[in-house]
Amino acid sequence: MSSQARMQLLTEKAIASKRYLYDANKQEPPSLAYLENAVNQKSITLKRSDPKLIILDLNGTLVYRDKSHNNRIFSRPFLMQFLDYIFERFYVMIWSSAAPNNVKKIVDAVFPPRHSSNLVDMWARDSFGLTTFQYRQKWLTIKDLEIVWERLNNQNRNRENPPIWSQNNTLLIDDSPLKAQLQPYNAIHLDEYDLELHRSRRDEELNDAILYLSDLRYESNVSAFIRKNPYKPRFKSKESYTQYLNVIEQNESYYRPSNQFNTTPASSDYKKSRRGDGGYDGRGLYHNDSNSSRQNLNNAPDVIERIDEFGRIRRDH
């Protein structure tokens, strides 16, 4: 390595170290405009679903890669049913922090051609704008959906009546809440599909995700819906779910005094519907077994949350 290349690498390493400390210890909040839309705008349940974009993570979400056995790929249970469901009803793209060649290997291994050929796009580690040093390390990668919206909307500019992607119609499915910290209400976080869960043979997370998506696809505002009706992984005691709640609380705390009401999602939302035994979700809808019955039993008066001129969240009855 030349002295110039070595100096460049050392410079990148120094810059990256500062960024790492910031990313790891001080999470970035969502923009005020993003929070205003998620807090102030209601989601309306539509009679017919409108176009929505699902952004899929791969390793830990859809597959488990066993690095001790030459990166052997294990599909998550019910993966094919899940893929069939979403490709029939949603636009789908992939965004993974894995290297491009590994992303291609996973897609080729578990996505049948009828699905891989219909992907909107496929992004890998080279899409995060990492420095050379960061790219080679196990680095926290933030999936900023603003980048997706800008790029895809620009690509669709000359098409006739294309969908305009935004926080109203986009969903990220990932196992890491930290990666979605800039748009926390546009993501659901499944339990990480790791070696322990793979060996347990009791993982049904993708079936649960299908149930959740069967409601979300009819909603007019994805971020407002998820804020009121957060997805609950089966094993909520796991670190990923605790991490998710921390991200939500820290993000909203930037816009309200610490003594204001707690806007962390209510624990009752979706608590029974995802077990298949029936129950009410956060909108007053009753879910019976695997079918999502849309019986609106919520007669309570509307409560409108808004952000005032001082950045504080208010409730208007």
Automatic annotation (TrEMBL):
Keywords: Mitochondrion, Protein transport, Transit peptide, Translocation, Transport. Its main location: mitochondrion. It holds the Pfam family NIF. Gene3D superfamilies: HAD superfamily/HAD-like. Signal peptide: none annotated. InterPro entries: FCP1_dom, HAD-like_sf, HAD_sf, TIM50. Residues 269-286 have a biased composition (Basic and acidic residues). Residues 256-300 are annotated as: Disordered. Residues 256-267, 288-299 have a biased composition (Polar residues). This is Mitochondrial import inner membrane translocase subunit TIM50. It comes from Ambispora gerdemannii.
